[in-house]
Design goal:
Structural class: alpha+beta
Number of domains: 2
Order of helices and strands: EEEEEEEEHEEHHEEHHHEEEEEE
Shape: globular
Number of helices: 6
Bound molecules: zinc ion
CATH topology of the largest domain: Threonyl-tRNA Synthetase, Chain A, domain 2
Length: 296
């Protein structure tokens, strides 16, 4: 879908710094296919990414100056051509080139009621839902690093690409899809011909998936014994900017690119556990992270 908006700037977002609320101006609003859509100049909402839609969009509320509340049912990334003012969503947006300097990313808030452009509003994110997704997302990053460590002995050649703990990056090389939920997350891995050519012994790795899961879970348990802050930088900036997730595991700094949201510290996690199951072309890893307290 393409919408003429007259806009010339993307959205400044603050979710990476952990923000749950912002005052903002509505810069574009419309109704399409019975959905009320609104764009604001700033937003604390984490929208579902177009290119790697692993984490669902934030939900919450948009509060008007007179106190009326519209519910934000969903939030999605869209891409604005700053030269033409055309905003592309869905497949139309995925067809655009990311490197184009005229393309800027926008948070599209999907509302249950209409709002008027020009209004100054308060945006409020559903905190418990955000926290649940953040908890699972941080757990998924730790599980990816633990998977790489567990899989390291199954490489017969040393690949060029290693993670920040020095292990061959199987997660990056083999992940084909990722879905982060409020209770658990699922990552699909394809162990194909190209990976075998790079020297990964898929057959040996797959021969004992319960054993691999046990090894990953032991690594995850050890990772959580030295709590450290979890940071996503920059904490505020244009939605289209690249962001980096980082923390310390037993004193060693680890990082990876990430556009999602995370808990502020590893001590928010009581436990992270995975289970592995075979698929037609590889395996699937389900990661379940438990909160250290019931507070959000
Ligand atoms: Zn991530």
């Amino acid at each position: 879908m393409e919408l003429q908006t007259g806009l010339s700037n993307g959205t400044v977002v603050t979710f990476a710094g952990g923000s749950l609320g912002e005052t903002a101006r509505v810069v574009f609003a419309t109704e399409v296919a019975r959905e009320h859509l609104a764009v604001t100049d700033r937003s604390p909402f984490h929208p579902q990414s177009l290119s790697w839609p692993d984490q669902p969009g934030d939900r919450g509320w948009l509060i008007l100056a007179d106190g009326r509340r519209a519910t934000v049912l969903d939030s999605r990334e869209a891409l604005l051509n700053r030269a033409t003012g055309i905003l592309a969503t869905g497949d139309a947006a995925r067809a655009l080139k990311r490197g184009d300097p005229d393309i800027a990313a926008v948070v599209l808030h999907v509302l249950d009621a209409a709002v008027a452009p020009g209004e100054v509003v308060t945006l409020e994110v559903d905190g418990p839902f955000r926290h649940a997704l953040s908890l699972q997302h941080t757990g998924v990053h730790l599980a990816a690093l633990a998977l790489n460590q567990c899989a390291a002995p199954f490489w017969t050649k040393t690949p060029d690409d290693t993670d920040s703990l020095g292990a061959p990056n199987l997660d990056k090389a083999a992940v084909t899809q990722s879905q982060i939920g409020a209770d658990a997350s699922t990552d699909g891995y394809r162990l194909g011909k190209s990976l075998r050519k790079k020297g990964f012994d898929a057959a040996a790795f797959l021969s004992d998936l319960p054993g691999r899961a046990a090894a990953i879970n032991e690594t995850l348990r050890q990772m959580l014994t030295t709590p450290a802050p979890v940071v996503l930088t920059p904490g505020e900036g244009p939605l289209g900017d690249r962001r980096l997730w980082s923390t310390h595991l037993n004193g060693v700094e680890v990082s990876m690119p990430c556009g999602g949201t995370h808990v502020a510290r590893l001590s928010d996690l009581a436990a992270v556990e995975v289970s592995l199951a075979p698929t037609e072309d590889g395996f699937v890893m389900v990661t379940q992270s438990r909160a250290a307290t019931t507070a959000s």
